[in-house]
Amino acid sequence: MTDTTDRTDAAEGPDTIEGPNAAELRRRTREFLAAHPPGTTERTAFLKARFDAGLAWVHYPEGLGGLAAPRPLQAVVDADLEAAGAPDNDPRRIGIGLGMAAPTILGFGTEDQKRRFLRPLWVGEEVWCQLFSEPGAGSDLAALGTRAVREGDTWVVNGQKVWTSSAHLARWAILIARTDPDVPKHRGITYFVCDMTDPGVEVRPLRQITGEAEFNEVFLTDVRIPDAHRLGAVGDGWRVAQTTLMNERVSIGGTRLPREGGMIEPLARTWRERPELRTHDLHQRLLTLWVEAEVARLTGERLRQQLAAGQPGPEGSAAKLGFARLNQAISGLEVELLGQEGLLYDDWTMRRPEGVDFFGRGAGYRYLRAKGNSIEGGTSEVLLNIVAERVLGLPPEPRTDKDVAWKDLTR
């Protein structure tokens, strides 16, 4: 398995699209496996060779892990590699790199940046995190105040970021900072790749309601970023960030799942295995949520088909909205179904997990962790506005700060 946000059914007529077809990719995969047997090839060496063979994400350009093939054909490669027992790149651990950093680097990076960052990102040698949200700029991300001041070919960055998943593991971060306070807030932002080993980067854990500290707050003090690590033009960071945000919402809300997968799976399993817990009312509510989960899954499949034709759009916000609402409703019903058992919690030990886990552990964990689903990746309130304005075409909310310089805004 690789980045699940890039996988789509191969049954969409890929042989009719220009580029390598399914038969050609199967042949390439067989030859690759013959040259690099999974049972005898060291894991990292196997993954590097897979990237170099263009079988990492086949829709990427040649030389960057792909073959410029149709995106749906990734499922063909993945299925054959999985059947052969090939190792994956642990996508849960490196999901921010795969789902957010990589498409942004591909879309806006220089050739040197693409060749420097994409291979170790995909292989999992370098973990990435996202330095976007701030204590005073979460829902209104464009109001961010972290400053980047240019000194020759270097930018000096000072500020604070928050809700940073995997910052305690990350080698690199995608960072947006204010480079011009004299223009309206959306126009004075620039996008950078930040070295998390810089001595000015301090990572502090944020313990969550689950007991874990998967999130962090990050303090940036005179962090020096070379201009060669800037993505996009100076002042164009908001446009670059939109690519990251749209892909983030798809990667959270549009994850590829089997039928009865995700949060509904443990609830349905408990229902089947514990008939003594059943009531008529719970049955009706379970059926309703099961159908809604299946609708969401099929909608996600359609969204991935749209991705085959281009970049994700505002529809990803709707998928992420549904993901949060369903997870909270399903996990709540599971706790209710279990009665007193549902009030138990397995372990409050402070952990620093290596990946985001929405569905793992027990019912109590799932219930508490789901509370964050309506905050991370864009709050549900902000996503409702995006869907209303960009999908339904409703009039936008009045924005009195649209043409006001950031430095003149009330904070």
Structural description of this entry:
There is one protein chain. The protein has helices at 22-35, 43-52, 74-83, 95-108, 111-123, 237-253, 264-273, 280-307, 315-338, 363-370, 380-391; strands at residues 128-131, 147-151, 154-161, 172-178, 189-195, 201-206, 215-226, 230-231. It has 411 residues and is an alpha+beta fold. A hairpin with an 8-residue loop joins β6 (201-206) and β7. The model is unreliable at 1-18 (pLDDT under 50).
Question: How many E strands?
Answer: 8
* Low-confidence runs of at least 5 consecutive residues: 1-18
Shape: globular
Radius of gyration: 22 Å
Measured as a percent range, the helix fraction is 25-40%
**Structural class computed from helices and strand pairing:** alpha+beta
Beta-strand fraction estimate: 5-15%
The largest beta-sheet arranges its strands as 1-4-5-8
SSE arrangement, N to C: HHHHHEEEEEEEEHHHHHH
For the structure shown, list the relevant keywords:
411 residues, alpha+beta, 4-stranded mixed β-sheet, 4-stranded antiparallel β-sheet, 11 helices, 8 strands, 12% strand, globular, disordered N terminus
In short:
The chain is 39% helix and 12% strand.
